[in-house]
Amino acid sequence: MNHTVLKTLAAAGLLMAAMAARADAVDTLREFVRDVKSGKAAFSQVVTSPDGKKKKTSSGDFEFQRPNRFRFAYVKPFEQAIVADGQKVWIYDNDLNQASSRKMTDAIGATPAALLAGGSLEKDFSLKALADRDGLSWVQALPKAKDGQFQSIQIGFKGKQLAAVEIVDSFGQRSALAFSDLQANVTIDPERFRFTPPPGADVLEQ
């Protein structure tokens, strides 16, 4: 067997291994949605403007319970909560003492929250494995809805653990979330997914 054939076989082997690894990343996302029924983690988020010049950084805690219950509690740079109780999604701004809500069906659709906490992965998204980068295995989830708020969502896993989500919205704005200290299938107080506007809050319901 000459060197050319050996090199060809080696290259083919590497390509097949890379393709298998990327396919595994899609399977990892499917397993996450299927097997992880609840979880909580700390997160940091960087939002970048379409031209790449402006960046906003925030951080907080994320909790979820399938189906369709989640809570993003932003702590820095200001306090804000996004709470889904299975029927409605509430957004509360602590500084303004203002709360707004929308029906769950209108609010999340094919969104990152639906992907992480919902149960309609294959129905709402087209999945494609991407090349590994930054030490993570990546999956691209393209919303099937043509009039959605997001162009694309990418989910990064370190092994079997959710590590990152990158989102490009319909305006080209990019949001990158990094998760840490993820605890899967833990018991979470159901009250964490209920929201009652504080006394005196301005309430806008849609």
Keywords:
4 helices, 206 residues, alpha+beta, 23% helix, twelve-stranded mixed sheet, disordered N terminus, globular
Structure characterization notes:
The chain has 206 residues and is α+β, with helices and mostly antiparallel strands. Helices cover 23% and strands 45% of the residues. The protein contains four helices and twelve strands. The protein has a twelve-stranded mixed beta sheet with strand order 7-8-9-10-11-1-2-3-4-5-6-12.
β-strand percent reads: over 45%
End-to-end separation in angstroms reads: 71 Å
Structural class: alpha+beta
Total strands: 12
Largest sheet, spatial ordering of strands: 7-8-9-10-11-1-2-3-4-5-6-12
Largest sheet, in brief, is:
12 strands, mixed
Helix content: 10-25%
Rg result? 19 Å
Number of contiguous helices = 4
Q: What is the global morphology? A: globular
Looking at the chains present, what oligomeric state does this protein adopt?
single chain
The SSE order reads: HEEEEEEHHHEEEEEE
The mean pLDDT is 81
Unreliable spans: 2-22
